[in-house]
Amino acid sequence: MIIAVATQDGAVAAHFGRCSEYTIVEVEDGSVVDTKTVPNPGHEPGVLPGFLADQGAECMIAGGMGPRAQNLFARLDIDVVVGATGPVDAVVRNHIRGCLEIGDDLCDHD
Predict the structure, then answer these.
(1) Cβ atoms within 10 A of the Cβ of 100, count?
(2) I need a labelling partner for 74 at 20 to 30 A (CA). Which of 5, 20, 45, 64 fits?
């Protein structure tokens, strides 16, 4: 499984489209086997879901995301988790373990 995390300064970014980079985490048998970061290519409406699908993402974690983007990810069969906060490593670890606590979607637009 490949998890993409909207990242800003080592933590989950509040808005997936406005982050500085994405952390791409490859998970096998419940363990992280590879991690890399890729710069955000730019916040163009509708582009980022395809960009992250090209990175192999099967799950997208962010603090917040608008409904249009969530629908685009759904069309690409990429699971979306919003309302996550904290350091990327801890969030990924908790997601893998099935104990990630999420709050409200931090996105401020519809």
Answers:
(1) 17
(2) 20
Q: Classify domain 2-97 at the CATH topology level.
A: Nucleotidyltransferase; domain 5 (3.30.420)
Q: How many CB atoms lie within 10 A of CB 108?
A: 9
Neighbouring C-alpha atoms within 13 Å toward the C-beta of 47: 8
User: Global pTM?
Assistant: 0.93
| DSSP E strand stretches across 1-110 | 2-8, 11-12, 21-28, 31-39, 59-62, 79-82
Question: Helix or strand or coil: residue 96?
Answer: helix
Residue 85 phi/psi, 5° resolution? -140, 160
> pLDDT tens digit string along 42-101?
877 779 999 999 999 999 999 999 899 999 999 999 999 999 999 999 999 999 999 999
At residue 6, the pLDDT reads 97
